[in-house]
Specification:
The chain is of the alpha/beta class and 302 residues long. The protein has a single domain, classed as Rossmann fold, CATH 3.40.50. Strands 1-2-4-3-5-6-7-8 form an eight-stranded mixed beta sheet, sandwiched between helices. Helix 6 packs across helix 7. It is globular, with a radius of gyration of 18 Å. The relative contact order is 0.17.
């Protein structure tokens, strides 16, 4: 179905669905400053083809969901010291958004899948709303502990640089970023990267929301102790060549959550390269089937 809006607590979220609403739901939560477009439609259709109802949405402060423009993003000093002053919200608030979206769609529980910051949000959904999580998949994410998942030094300037305000500059910045953090082991489609960056700018030109989301991550601190309370069957996926969230973040996540399984994808960086879609979707579908106690039939895309 086309994009739609729904109120969730004090915010309004933009979402889109793929597949049969009668199938088990897979809630897809995207990362820092990235709109629902970060889950490509073709990727969502692969999930639907596995017999799942895929839901992707804009987190608060990106895309067409509610923006917190009245709150300033953190300063460079606040980012470097990891001490944001008066953050607009935390990861817990964003996790409550995800749970509220399920309620708004009449979904009792879903297989919750998050990438990067979306993985952190997904983890917090499992902590705060365990009855809503049939299974958890955390992709290229981390625990909030400072000693793990640290970005490569050459990535830091992108995190500290002021956001681009012009369309072409914003597109070039995304291309430059993925030159560094993209997957070296998979073919890269720069034209598609440019297209998605342009579509994202056209949907929302507010570039300050990513700073407020980053403040939410920093304000949430080390969540390892809370992750130990997760009871949902958990799969952790991470690329061996991730320069934005080092693989140690994935390992720490799997270690913190009882019974979690870690899958490393060789050559994958901090993105979802098309060449890895079949494997990632296959892992998600197999994990969901096992969590539901269904026969672990081979995935259609494995």
């Amino acid at each position: 179905m086309p994009e739609a809006m729904t109120p969730v607590g004090s915010v309004e979220l933009c979402y889109e669905t793929f597949g049969d609403p009668g199938d088990p739901a897979v809630l897809l939560i995207m990362g820092l400053g990235t709109q629902l477009l970060g889950w490509p439609a073709e990727f969502c259709e692969l999930i639907a083809a596995e017999g799942y109802f895929a839901v992707r949405y804009d987190n608060r402060d990106v895309g067409r969901s509610t923006h917190f423009s009245g709150h300033r993003p953190p300063s460079v000093v606040e980012l470097v010291t990891r001490r944001p002053k008066d953050p607009a919200y935390t990861l817990d608030d964003m996790a409550d958004d995800a749970a509220g979206l399920l309620d708004a769609l009449g979904i009792d529980a879903a297989h919750v899948v998050g990438a990067s910051m979306g993985g952190m949000i997904a983890q917090q959904v499992a902590v705060r709303h365990p009855a809503k999580v049939r299974s958890l998949v955390s992709i290229m994410s981390t625990t909030g502990a400072q000693r793990v998942g640290r970005p490569a030094l050459k990535v830091l300037p992108f995190l500290l640089k002021a956001p681009a305000t012009e369309r072409e500059a914003a597109i070039e910045r995304i291309v430059d970023l993925f030159d560094i953090v993209g997957s070296p082991g998979f073919e890269r489609d720069v034209a598609t990267t440019r297209e998605l960056a342009g579509l994202s700018f056209d949907r929302s030109s507010d570039r300050r929301g990513a700073g407020r989301q980053l403040a939410a991550i920093l304000a949430s601190g080390n969540r390892e102790r809370r992750l130990r309370t997760i009871t949902a069957p958990t799969l952790v996926i991470h690329g061996t060549d991730d320069k934005l969230v080092a693989p140690s973040g994935g390992r720490a996540t799997a270690k913190a959550i009882a019974g979690a399984r870690l899958e490393l994808i060789r050559g994958m960086g901090h993105d979802l390269p098309p060449g890895a879609w079949k494997r990632i979707v296959g892992l998600i579908a197999s994990h969901a089937r096992t969590a539901d106690g269904r026969a672990a039939a081979p995935s259609a895309v494995e």
